[in-house]
């Protein structure tokens, strides 16, 4: 582990002084490591650009036995094209960065003994969206930075109404119903009726953090506490607020997933049948752990839910090229190509809720884009206001990367030759002018040709 810290510290020697101070403070403080049977921290942050499945992946393990106990999960990654390199956390030859370049496209950490002080470097990776990594360890401060708070050491999620028949008696082997999953097929996969097995620690999310995703929650009868102690105080997490799996997509599209259970990804859980201990409960020969784990890995490694902007065009209706500057009240056409990554290929995105805004500080026009073949387009009239505007598409939907496109244009007023010769609203004034001219003409004729009668003597 010391070699991992040294490798990252060497690459970060040019960091700002504030980062050094924070790292120094973290070095002086180590986190308490929780029992790896009751708590797992799973974090996956993905690259800003598309992370295709052909990237080299470092799998950091506490011991090589985890490679065997979680072989099905690793095999699913290898079958999808990931090049997995397994190493232990205390490997002296371990290096993440060389000559300022990242040696791996993705980093998977299944090492409960990794010291918590390394979290500051992973925060840096999340903030820059450069690395993809998976960690399983109670790095509490990293969770706090992402809006997730873990329960205390040696606590577990307990549910006296939704536990498996194979539970030893503590009611900590939870059977989570598929209804408790986040309603986002891009993240959790297609809807299914398979329950999920879970045994681990509970979490709660920061209600003021809008980026946190409640991927899998406990039932209304669940809570997090010490399984071997009577309840003497209000539990850390209760009911639907108990998070079993949580996630976050940062504003730079980096993705993070937290799981309270390492066993969730194990072969024993993948192959286990599920049946609630309550009388009359049906038996499921296959649980939903493997499907959910695969869906989460696809989302986090950016194999799913990735959008990109293609060609963006705008021009007056009837023309094909944009002018140097538009004129107020012009009829314009805007089009944008939006693509989605599917099975390693970019395909047209199918959406009916994409909006276009024509903005000058505030939106003057907001309208839906209509799908036309492989692109989205719309025609609208520019406002009767001149200035510097932007064609802006800001698409932010659950499970998808944040899509943003902005094109700046100028809108000028009418030239003096473009104004109407006669304005309809001025017709009364025109009538008054011509009536005065006609009156003057009549008066002139009368005045010039009227002759006074001569007075008789």
Automatic annotation (TrEMBL):
Location of the protein in the cell: Endoplasmic reticulum membrane
Membrane-related topology note: Single-pass type I membrane protein
Location of the OST48 middle domain: 314-451
Transmembrane in keyword set: yes
Superkingdom per UniProt: Eukaryota
Disordered as annotated region, ranges: 1-24
Gene Ontology terms: cellular component: oligosaccharyltransferase complex
Keywords of this entry: Endoplasmic reticulum, Membrane, Transmembrane, Transmembrane helix
Transmembrane segments: 427-448
Pathway note: Protein modification; protein glycosylation
Pfam families (alphabetical): OST48_MD, OST48_N
Composition skew (Low complexity), residue ranges: 11-24
Compositionally biased intervals (Polar residues): 1-10
Annotated ranges, domain OST48 N-terminal: 56-300
An annotated GO BP: protein N-linked glycosylation via asparagine
Family affiliation: Belongs to the DDOST 48 kDa subunit family.
PANTHER family to which the protein is assigned, alphabetical: DOLICHYL-DIPHOSPHOOLIGOSACCHARIDE--PROTEIN GLYCOSYLTRANSFERASE 48 KDA SUBUNIT (PTHR10830)
Function field: Subunit of the oligosaccharyl transferase (OST) complex that catalyzes the initial transfer of a defined glycan (Glc(3)Man(9)GlcNAc(2) in eukaryotes) from the lipid carrier dolichol-pyrophosphate to an asparagine residue within an Asn-X-Ser/Thr consensus motif in nascent polypeptide chains, the first step in protein N-glycosylation. N-glycosylation occurs cotranslationally and the complex associates with the Sec61 complex at the channel-forming translocon complex that mediates protein translocation across the endoplasmic reticulum (ER). All subunits are required for a maximal enzyme activity.
Quaternary structure and partners: Component of the oligosaccharyltransferase (OST) complex.
Protein's UniProt name: Dolichyl-diphosphooligosaccharide--protein glycosyltransferase 48 kDa subunit
Gene encoding the protein: ddost
